């Protein structure tokens, strides 16, 4: 069991952590749970978990601040945010701060397991990408092996999920991909109804690639397309 992925679940509602633990352990994962943001940061530092399921509304330090601090330290741990709110504010803010995905409470625990599996499969995608050839598009080099992007030979820092999304668009350049296709190809799971994740990551890429010859066009009512100026 020691070599099975360790999932850190952070929530102050015992029934949520118990439900998550039951379903994740059933899939063979190890699970550690804590109930506040301070304990979450300590557990990430001491246990080095493989993924983090993080509620937003937490005692001491809220989940958004936990996420912000981890990303400020360049900690790449995959993060799934949990939010009980019906509006988009917390969801988008969590993604802006560097979360990879989110789920709205109450959630189907099987969906949580599917999201965790998808994020952990990212490591397998890394191995596949390592053997692929860098692609130069105008003034921009995208290197899947080094997981680097350079514009005019200057590095562009991308988070892991941002790079995965860009690499999918590069591989399908000139083609229109729906949000559902991008979720499947870049996140690794089928459409489950929450495509805002894609939109926020696209917005991040556009800002970071502002000086690049590549553009991500919106095709209204369909999805996105990568083109080269």
What does the model show?
Helix content is 42%, strand content 22%. With 229 residues, the protein is α/β, with parallel strands linked by helices. The strands form 3 sheets. A 5-stranded parallel beta sheet has the order 2-1-3-4-5, sandwiched between helices. Strands 6-7-8-9 form a 4-stranded antiparallel beta sheet, covered by helices on one side. Strands 10-12-11 form a 3-stranded antiparallel beta sheet. Strand 3, helix 3 and strand 4 form a beta-alpha-beta unit. Helix 1 packs across helix 5 and helix 7 packs across helix 8. The mean pLDDT is 89.
Compute the separation of the termini in Å: 51 Å
- The tally of beta strands, per DSSP, is 12
Overall 3D shape: globular
The major sheet is characterized as: 5 strands, parallel
Spatial strand order of the main sheet: 2-1-3-4-5
Percent helix: 40-55%
Outline the low-pLDDT stretches.
none
Provide the residue-averaged pLDDT: 89
The value of Rg in angstroms is 18 Å
Relevant terms:
229 residues, 4-stranded antiparallel sheet, single chain, 42% helix, alpha/beta, 12 strands
Describe, in short, the structure shown.
The protein has 229 residues and is α/β, with parallel strands linked by helices.
């Amino acid at each position: 069991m020691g070599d099975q992925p360790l999932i850190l679940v952070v929530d102050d509602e015992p029934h949520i952590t118990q439900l998550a633990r039951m379903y994740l352990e059933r899939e063979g994962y190890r699970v550690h749970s804590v109930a506040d943001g301070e304990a979450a940061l300590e557990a990430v530092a001491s246990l080095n978990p493989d993924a983090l399921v993080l509620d937003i509304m937490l005692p001491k330090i809220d989940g958004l601040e936990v996420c912000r601090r981890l990303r400020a330290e360049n900690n790449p741990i995959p993060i799934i945010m949990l939010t009980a709110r019906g509006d988009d504010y917390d969801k988008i803010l969590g993604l802006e701060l560097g979360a990879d995905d989110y789920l709205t409470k109450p959630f189907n625990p099987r969906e949580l397991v599917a999201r965790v599996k998808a994020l952990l499969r990212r490591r397998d995608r890394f191995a596949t990408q390592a053997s692929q050839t860098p692609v130069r598009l105008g003034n921009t080099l995208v290197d899947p092996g080094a997981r680097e992007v350079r514009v005019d030979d200057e590095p562009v820092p991308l988070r892991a999920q941002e790079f995965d999304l860009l690499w999918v668009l590069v591989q399908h350049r000139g083609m229109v991909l729906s949000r559902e296709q991008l979720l499947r190809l870049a996140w690794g799971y089928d459409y489950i109804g929450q495509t805002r994740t894609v939109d926020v990551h696209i917005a991040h890429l556009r800002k970071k690639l502002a000086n690049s010859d590549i553009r991500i066009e919106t095709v209204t009512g369909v999805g996105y397309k990568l083109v080269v100026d």
